[in-house]
Design a protein that fits this description.
By secondary structure, chain A is α/β, with parallel strands linked by helices. Chain A has seven helices and five strands. Classes of the chains: A alpha/beta (199), B mainly alpha (104).
Chain lengths: 199, 104
């Protein structure tokens, strides 16, 4: 019978996930090291869209804030603020935030780029190529960075990863489970993209 | 770790109450743990089947309607809990005593 071993395995996975550094080790294998440097554009990928009241989600706000910070540090002359299609006006809300933080309209490109990371990168790649961009500072969550960076690299861009810090060393068992879940989910997404031939 | 020490302590107290006051047998405990593993294992099977079916449904709806349906809708802890409950109920039902067939 497979049921009991499966149950034991699930219990073991749960306890290893909650009470050992296993999630952190797996996440470290998935994560891409930060490499900040001069680039042609800072690209902030969509994340979480906007909430019912029109405010950016936490994920979207954190990514946007890092993009603005990099722009204000003079890392690139262009700040690209992406947003998901059909998720409210994420890119527009990001542009408002960037403007409030002193980013000029001429230095900003806000675009609703797609439903999935694959669609988003395809749309952005065409826009960036048209502007002569070759080297991008890519801003997204740490767990999402490997998949996003591989898509840009497949589109022949040089990628400097600038991941937003997340749950990279959680102290509580519940947070470790969240990190474990995030890592497994992103692992599955990577596998799906690999099988679909997106890289 | 304090909440987990509390759980260890209440487990010990429950064990002592069960054995000394309620007359439950320690030799039955491994069978109870095995029952939990069986329920959880069944829940995992339901989870995997639900995941595959829902993923196929999302991708199928995308292909059939041309509209976008997100796979992130599968990324929900409540959905996982409900799948595990499905497994638990299935297991209890399967293990329930069945009436004997009438002798003809």
């Amino acid at each position: 019978m497979i049921v009991r071993p499966l149950g034991v395995a699930a219990l073991a996975l749960f306890f290893f996930g909650a009470f050992t550094p296993l999630p952190t080790l797996l996440y470290a294998r998935l994560a891409v090291p930060t490499r900040i440097g001069p680039a042609d554009a800072i690209v902030v990928l969509a994340g979480g869209g906007v909430l019912g009241d029109g405010q950016l989600s936490d994920t979207s706000r954190r990514r946007t804030a890092l993009g603005i910070e990099l722009y204000r540090d003079g890392r690139a002359p262009l700040l690209v603020l992406s947003g998901a299609l059909g998720a409210g006006a994420e890119s527009a809300a990001r542009a408002v935030l960037a403007r409030t933080c002193g980013v000029a309209d001429a230095a900003m490109l806000a675009v609703a780029a797609g439903h999935t990371t694959h669609e988003e990168v395809a749309t952005l790649a065409a826009l960036l190529r048209a502007r002569g961009v070759r080297r991008v500072l890519l801003v997204t969550d740490g767990s999402h960075m490997r998949r996003a960076a591989r898509l840009f690299e497949a589109a022949r861009f040089e990628v400097l990863p600038a991941p937003v810090r997340g749950l990279d060393d959680p102290p509580q068992p519940g947070e470790r489970i969240l990190l474990f879940h995030e890592t497994l989910r992103e692992g599955l997404a990577l596998l799906y993209y690999e099988v679909a031939g997106y890289f | 770790m304090t909440p987990y020490l509390t759980i260890a302590l209440t487990s010990l107290v429950a064990y002592l109450v069960a054995v000394r006051r309620l007359g439950m047998r320690p030799s039955d405990l491994p069978r109870a743990v095995a029952g939990v593993a069986d329920s959880l294992g069944t829940g995992v099977i339901f989870t995997l089947v639900n995941l595959a079916a829902a993923g196929a449904l999302v991708l199928g709806l995308r292909a059939l309607t041309g509209r976008f349906f997100t796979l992130y809708s599968l990324d929900d802890v409540v959905w996982l809990v409900v799948s595990l409950l499905q497994g638990w109920v299935w297991r209890l039902w399967r293990d329930a005593p069945r009436p004997r067939a009438p002798v003809s």
